[in-house]
From TrEMBL:
<feature type="transmembrane region" description="Helical">
    <location>
        <begin position="326"/>
        <end position="359"/>
    </location>
</feature>
<feature type="domain" description="MacB-like periplasmic core">
    <location>
        <begin position="21"/>
        <end position="247"/>
    </location>
</feature>
<dbReference type="GO" id="GO:0022857">
    <property type="term" value="F:transmembrane transporter activity"/>
</dbReference>
<comment type="similarity">
    <text>Belongs to the ABC-4 integral membrane protein family.</text>
</comment>
<dbReference type="GO" id="GO:0005886">
    <property type="term" value="C:plasma membrane"/>
</dbReference>
<dbReference type="InterPro" id="IPR025857">
    <property type="entry name" value="MacB_PCD"/>
</dbReference>
<protein>
    <submittedName>
        <fullName>ABC transporter permease</fullName>
    </submittedName>
</protein>
<feature type="transmembrane region" description="Helical">
    <location>
        <begin position="365"/>
        <end position="388"/>
    </location>
</feature>
<dbReference type="Pfam" id="PF12704">
    <property type="entry name" value="MacB_PCD"/>
</dbReference>
<dbReference type="InterPro" id="IPR050250">
    <property type="entry name" value="Macrolide_Exporter_MacB"/>
</dbReference>
<keyword id="KW-0812">Transmembrane</keyword>
<dbReference type="InterPro" id="IPR003838">
    <property type="entry name" value="ABC3_permease_C"/>
</dbReference>
<feature type="transmembrane region" description="Helical">
    <location>
        <begin position="21"/>
        <end position="42"/>
    </location>
</feature>
<dbReference type="Pfam" id="PF02687">
    <property type="entry name" value="FtsX"/>
</dbReference>
<keyword id="KW-1133">Transmembrane helix</keyword>
<feature type="domain" description="ABC3 transporter permease C-terminal">
    <location>
        <begin position="285"/>
        <end position="398"/>
    </location>
</feature>
<keyword id="KW-1003">Cell membrane</keyword>
Amino acid sequence: MDLVESIKMSATTLVANKLRSSLTMLGIIIGNASVIAMVGIGQGAQKLASEQFESLGPNVLFVLPGSREARNTTFDLPKTLVWEDAKAIANQVPSIAGVSPEISNRFLISYRNKNSQSQVTGTTPEYLDVRSFKVDKGRFVNELDIKRNKQVVMLGSELAEKLFGKQNPLGEEVRINNISFQIVGIMGTKGSFMGQNQDDAAFLPLTTMANRLQGKTSPYGTEVSWISISAKNQASIDAAKFQIENLLRRRHKITGEDDFGVDTQKDILSIVNNVTGALTIMLAAIAAISLGVGGIGVMNIMLVSVTERTQEIGLRKALGAREKDILIQFLIEAVILSAAGGILGTLVGVSGVFFVGVVTPLKAGISPMAILVAVGVSGGIGLFFGVVPARRAAKLDPIVALRSA
């Protein structure tokens, strides 16, 4: 019997038992859809993280307080960075384009009967260029605000809408931690970064934030939460990092472990990609278990089919069919079931990834390699788990098969 005839017979047999064939394919469909969806969502998370880091600004470095061990083990970081460190970096590091010290905390912001618990950042005029922010209306912090500790505030676009609706907020006053601040600017839309909505935020002069809201807690100067720095260009990033580390070690008189860390966008993105990549592999591995379960289902149904079709097998062998012919037919049936389930599962998985991309911020990412691997594995599973039933059918003695019928 030629291969085409075997395929026709296998297809006819499967179509004749639609419900059983559909239930057999269900495990493969779920397995394929799960693998493709998990890989696609993981890749979407990596794309989203990359875009968010790029939105921080070009060639940005971050100086963070505390040793690397302290940053990994506690949320209450040591108070080791001060404004004077940022000034020293700006004056003595030649490979940088801008420096922006920041003090950040969450405070209650009120306007009449509306309240919002939002992020408040005290910073300097360089913040706009270093972090690639734009002002939509009004102005940003200027040097006069810094010198005079002026009680002015710039609102993020979402915070402004939350407190004022369609009303123009410029010139109005809001209360931050029960202190009045005049609104002088509205920031352009920036989006979220690492789960933090940058549009639901307020910006103050650094000195005002330190003296009126945060309070001074370091004997060495105005304590800052971190320092954002932009290198002159991509090629200057490594040099800037090296120079900043050497300068701060001298300023802090460090002889052992650093009490600060300098991270580039690439460093942080690499960490995030490693985490999301590991999660993607873990989720895909868990989803792949259902492929194995689906394969067991194929073998189970095929064994049942061999038992039910004992008379057919005996008759075919009595008419001259070889063991090879019987083996090939049952293997083809198993592969058709698995391949069809793989294709349907692929369609479901791809649709799921696009649906997630529509309803969430994740970017839909479909990996052609994941699709090829999933469909190939599902076909391989059919072949692997179909061997035992096919061999059992091929080994049936025609006389015994006909008698048992």
